[in-house]
Structure formats: C-alpha cells, structure tokens
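Dear support,

We are seeing what looks like truncated structure output for some complexes. This example has two components. We would appreciate it if you could run it in full and send us the complete token output so we can diff it against ours.
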Amino acid sequence: MGSVTRTKLMSVMALCAMIGLLLMPILVAIPALADGSAPAADAKKEGGEAKVEKGKDVYYKTEGIVSGPPAPKTTDSEKDYPRYNFESRVLLWFANQQHLYYGSFVLAVPIFCMVIEFMGVVTKDKAMAKRYDQLAYDFIKISLTAYSLTAILGGILIFTFLTLYPAFFQYLSGIFRPVMHIYALMFVAESGTLYIYYYGWDKMKEGFLKWIHLSMSVVLNVIGTILMFLANSWIGFMMSPAGVDEQGRYLGNIWHVIHTALWNPLNLHRILGNMAFGGGVVAAYSAYRFLSAKTDEERAHYDWMGYIAMALGVAFLIPLPFAGYWLMREVYAYRQQMGITLMGGLLAWLFIIQATMIGILFLSTNYYLWQALGRMRGAEKYQRYIKYLVFLLTCGFLVFITPHTIVMTPAELKAMGGQQHPVLGNYGVMSAKNGGINVIITTTVLSFVWYMRGNKVSTVSWSKFGNIFMGCFFFFAYLNIILLAIYGYYIPANVRVGLSVPQVATTLSCLFFMFALNSVMMKGAKQMGPIEWGKISARSQYALIMLATAFTWMMGLMGYIRSSVRLFWHVNEIMRDNSPWAYTHTVGFAANMISANVLFFWISIMFVFWLGALAAKKAPVEAKAAVPGRAAAPAVGH
Amino acid sequence: MKALMSVGALIGVLGLLMLIGMIFGVVPSNTVRLVEGYMPMQVLSELAVFVAGFTGLSYLANSMGMAIPRFWQGVLFWTFVQTYLKFRIYPPIPFSVRAMYGVVSFVAVFMWVSANEEDWKKFRQPILNVLDANTGFHKALRTLYLILLPILIGGFSFLTMKPSVDEPIELRTVHPAPPASTKVHGKTYTLQTSQNPYRVNLEGKYDQAYSNKLIVEQGMGRLMAPNANPWDEKAEGYLKYVREGGEIFFQNCHFCHGDNLNGRGLHAFAFNPIPANFTDPGTIAQLQETFIFWRVAKGGIGLPNEGFPWASVMPPWEQHLTTDEIWKVILFEYWHTGYYPRTWD
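Here is the complete output from our reference environment:
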C-alpha cells in the first residue's frame, strides 16, 4: 500500500471516527429518551399497589407521570446560598459571561474556517486558494488557544454554581441529568474533532484529502452547534419552563424540558449572534495587527483579513435584529408581563442602550465600507453621495433609539404637558422602530453595493438600465419601509406585528436581488484600478475595533437583560430565588458590570492573540507572493 | 444641476430665515405649524428639506468661489440640528433625549467629514493650524483656548458638583409589567387570556374584528364610522355597550382624562404627570384590554414595585365601579380613540 493511499485511508478513518463521536452521545441518550416510561413500568410491576401520581405540564398542558422531586423552596441561609462576604450573583455573572464570550468565539470561528476553507477549495485561482487556506488556518489557530480557556472558564462556572447555588444547581441537574451527560460527551467529541482538524491541516491539504478535511470542519461545526443548543435548553427552561408540573416536578418527557417556548428563538438568535461576535473579534484582531504592522505586506494581509472577518460578521449581523424580533415576539406570546418588563417596563431603558449598540454596529460597518472605498481607484464617484447615506442612517438611528420611557425631571415632565410627547411618543413605539432599523439595514446594503462596484465600470450592454433599475429598487424599498411604518399606527397590534414581515422582506430583497444583480452587472467589468490592500485609513481599523467592542458590550447587555427578566425567579414561576440578591440591579450598576466583563474579556483575548502570534509560523512563500496589494487582486477579492 | 441646486439653496435660506425668525419672534411661531398626529414625519421631512437646502447652498458657494470650509460646515450643521431640536419642536424635548440626539448628530457629522481622506484633511486643517500656531492669529487663538478651556471645564465641573434644589430626575416606568392574574370583586382574571365580555357581535359572541369596524377613524377629526353611532337610540350590542361605557366615562373619568381622552381634563393640571393621554399611540394602543382592566381596577395605589415612583393618583376603581362598568368604560376608550386593543393571535 502506497503512502498516499495509507494517508487517505487514515483520513477517512479519522472522519468516520468524528462522525462516530458525533453519533455516540445520541446512542447513549436513547435510554434516556425513554426515561419517562420507566417509573410507570416500575409502578405497573408492583401490581398497581403503588399509586402513580400524575401531573400537568405547565406549558404543554399534557399529563405526565411525576418522575422527580418538586423544586426546592429555598431560604436565605448558608445551606441554600453559601456565600463569601460578597454578592454571589455578581461572581456567577462574571464567570458565566466570560465563559459565554469564549464559548461564542470558539463556536463561531470554526464556522468561519469552514466557509473560508470551502472558498479556498472551490476557487480556481491557485494564489487566492492558498490565501484563503492560510486565512482559515490563522483563524483556527486563534480559536485553539481560546478553546482551552473556554473549557477552563466552563469549569469555573460549574464550580461557582455548585458552591454558591447548590440547591438550584441540584434541582436543575436533576431535571437535565441526561442532557448534561450528552453535553459532556459532545464536548469530548468537539475536542477530539477540533484537534484532528487542526493538526491534520498540513497532512490533508491537497485533492481528495482536502475534501475530507473540509468534511471534518462540517462535523466539527455540527457538534459545536448541538453543544450550544443543549446549553440553550437550560436557559430556555429557566425562562419558560416546560416538562414539569406547577411544583416543578419532572414529568418524564425530556423533550418537553428541552423544547421550551423560547428554545428555538434562542437557538437562532444565539447562533447568529455568535457568528457576528466571532467576526467582530477576528476583525479587531486584524485591525490590531494592521495598526502595529511594520511592513506593507503585513498591512495588506491584515487589511484583507479584517475585511473578510468584517464581511462575515456583518453577513450574520444583518439578520440578527429579525431573529431578535422573533425572540421577543415569542416572549410576549409566552408571558405578556415578561415582554412588557423587557420592552416597556423595568428593563426598557436597557433596550434603548441595546438599540444604541445596534446602531453603533451598523454605523461602524458603513463607516468602514466608506473608508474602504478609499483604497480603490475609481471609487471617488460614490464618495460625494456619502453624506446622504449619513443622513438616512442618522434618521433611522434617531428613531430607533428614542425611548418610550423618557428620563426627565418633574419640571420637564410638566413642561411637556404629560408623559406622552407628540413626536417622541410616536418614535418610541415598535412601528417606528421597525422602520428605523430597516432603513439602517437597507442603507448598509447600499453601502455594500457601492463597495462591490467601487473600482469597476459595468460593461454589459444594459448597464444603464441596470443602474436605473437598482436606483428605483432602493428608492421604492425605502418608501415601502417608511410607509409601512406609518401605516402601523392605523391598524390593530396583531396586524402591526405582522407588518414587520413585508418590511423585512423589502430589506432582504434589497440584499439578495441587488447583490445578485450587481454581481451580474459587474461580471467582466472594466477595472479602474486594483484594490490597494493595506492602503486604507487608520480610522477604518478603529471602526473595526469599535465594531468588536460594541458586539462584546451588546452581548453582555443582552445576556443580562435575558437573565434579569426572570426577576426573582431561578426558574420562572417554578423556583423562587430567595437569596438576598433577588432584586434587579440599577441600570448604572449593570452597565458598569458589563463594562468590567468586556474589559476583562478584551484583556484576556489580547493575551490569547499574543500567544497565537508567538506560535506564528512564517507564511508560505507562495502565499506571500500573492499578498494583495503586491499584485492586482482579482474581482473575487470582494 | 445648477438650477436644481439653486432651488435647493433658496429653500435652505428661506428655511433658515424662517427658523431664526420664529426663534426670535420676528415671524409668528405658528407660521409653519407642527400638526399633532403628523409631527413625527413632519420633523423628519423638514430636516430632509434643510439637508437638501444646505447642499444647494454649499454647491452655490463653491461655484461662486466662496466655499465654506468643511470644518465650519460641520460645526454649523451640528449647531443647526441642536437649535432645531431645542426651538422648533414643541412641547419641549427633555434634556436626556436631546443629549442623545446631540451625540448621535455629532457622530453623524464626524462620519460625514471624515468619510474620505480629502474631506478629513480639509476638516482637521483649521484644528492643526491652531495647534501648530504658525501665524500670529493662530498663536493668539491657541493662547485663548489655553485659557478658556480650563475655565470651561472648571465651570462645567462646578455646575455638576453644585448642590441642586431641583427635584431629581425620574425614570418612571410608563407601563409596569402586569401580574399574571388579578382578582376583582372576588373573581380572578388571567390577564393573558381574559376577554372583554362586551366586545361582541350581533350574535353576542366575542368578535374583535366586528368591533374594529365600528370604532371611530383615527386622524384629525376622529369621525364616526358610517352607521356606527352609539348614541343612536337603535344602537344595539357592542355600540350600546360603548354608549354605556361613555356615560360611565363622563360621569367618572373625564374630569382628569378629558372629554377628548387626551389627558387634559378639568383637574388634569393639578397633577404631575398629568393623566394618561389615550389618544397617544404609546398608551392604550400598545396594551391588551386586560392590562387596562387591571390598571383601572387597582388604580395608582395598586401599581407594582416596578411602577416606581408610583406617580399616579388614579383611584382603585374597583371600589366605585362594578366589573361590568369597568369593561364597558374600556370599550368606550378604544372606540373613541380609534385604537385597537393589542392581541397576540
């Protein structure tokens, strides 16, 4: 047997092993799925002497056999809440948040690797293929160090739970016992797969082996996604419990416990959020390397890397508000008071901060793209119109951040003549905000379209018609979004909620149709000049850092909001939090805490980056030769 | 192009003159009125017109060789936005919101002036000139800044630290989250699922679509829908209940909430905040009927912890009205304002 065949065989075996690892927890879980029938069977065996107690599912309203103890009624004591001379909740908050930051990062980066590696495999340009491959390798290298840190932080989190909230954790682990075991096994599978994927990179870089390697990244990401879904089921259960009766007794159906009212919206929201966050972090890393670069080659490489990371991050950022909207809709449908607490009541101001952060994300993205026009010759024709985009973005942003609950002095309240302002009151409700965010996203799409055609002139015979069509399409898209936002005031709320669908459809139509049309128009386009990678302003890189910081801050904020909406419940309406910290923090304290978490994450991730740079191996000679900026970058560089 | 820009410039100049005139009282402040109900779009449209006008002005100034430096364009535009927000919009916008808008417009101006390298150079040149101080004028300016800046910062710090006798700002929760259920006259109502028993069709069945067709039309005038006059003696079912609700409203509620339901009743201005304005899209239009039922029944005293600072003097109407009367008055409020109660289906 030749050495190549042996390598192929080994690679296929490794892939099979990974798939086996992926399936192993499912096989292990099969008896657990039947867990619910066990008590019934046992009871029957006893000849019907022992009574089978039945309970009603608090969410699904189905009957089930009581298979677990009720939720503990805790008291403010050392037994239920052992503590240091410090607020236990803050310690848990910190451990949780750091674990989540790193967890999101290490789940997102392999997805990027998969996409970039795939682009490298399918591209016909060999130089570009090597660049993509090198970039994917750089990405996974960064995530590998972060992966160990994620595991360590996960351990710290578990210990914090066990030592500070033992009663609650015992209850939760009692219900989620099989899920937690599957989770642990999946984690083993994830680790094994990741190491084979990383260390097998050089061995499997050509032909059939490369496809095997690419398949491994798919398996790796499937495992990672399942891991996240399982973890989401715990927080979903805490917010909107199911599968238990009113006393919190497990009713034997593990699927009901996992598949709660908010599980699916949370899954979607988190996967998109992780991707956007991962893109932001890698973009910030590239920006940092760009700003500290000593040579033009380095600057060109990190400029390109930053652009790719930003583009991937933003690709997931665009649908993120829609996923968030779905989540909130489900929250309202699950419990009206929970929705009102979030968006109209106690936590409403945090949502205004969130809106501000979302606005900053889109503003930073647009700003980066406008700056990126500067490294293309021929893009000057678009720059004079940027001020109009700024105006559209600003109007959308101002509406989007207008609070419904206004902070004001009693004197201002009196001067305003009541709590409701005739202008601000209209901007402060959902109908206007939907319009605002859709205008912002559509403008971002427009900036992308300008960027994509920055240094090109279409040569297709129908280019004039195409340009007019695109202009009209965007114009009517804006018009439709704004008119629907106004129309929203004149119709019932349930219809108004549905109006978001045509608004989102309009925005997404701009995204898909205009990108597609633009690509067709720019096929074989005349290039006014190359993209001069590395010749972008330093301001653009600060915009990338801003993007990443805003992502990090927003993740911390939204996590806090989602968690604090339970108010004084560990598990909503099932298990009460009787610790001395069962109150909602002030907005100021929460903001400081989130900032501290963000600061710690960035300091620690800088350490990870530094470690990554220590182990950096020199880029292959061929890849260097193809560094953008040195040679004309092909159109696919967009 | 030049003609278009000239028109833009003309609009810009006229708009500016009008705004300045209205601020200083030279032009009557109601020359161009902000019309309630249309104000939000009117404000955005006016700003768009001003932007177009300023573009025209800038273009004309350029073509006449009198280009306004980019630095001053940025400064003037930001100042214009602040002036507009402070003096054009009435009732006045609270400082917290103006501060937010101010920061956003500052960022927007920065994004505009630094969007490309050439503009950015133009913008920062005057700043660099002052810092470099290569001429006598710039040297004097720099010295002036050196003296003024510490004074300004000191003054700002002083004003911040100075003890104030003003009432502190309040983050009043307009719509505190309701409980899952509420007990009124011995009966428990689940807020998520309860329905107004009087929102019925001619067959006596709960039918929101039916009642939706009979409410008054929104907008100025608030006209009654054809053949939907509750005060018609022949009115039956839903419309009859609306009339009964109206009678209860005018016997009990209108003293504070006003005969137009806009929170400006006879006694309204004895309170701060004045009573809720039901015609505003941010009040009952955002809420389920059961939320209103809970708030009416329990009043200000029944507000939950979240309702801090509990600034409501509304009595707990369950002590004065029957459950049926509360439902009917709610029916009337939605009918009169032309809003639909929130539903989740």
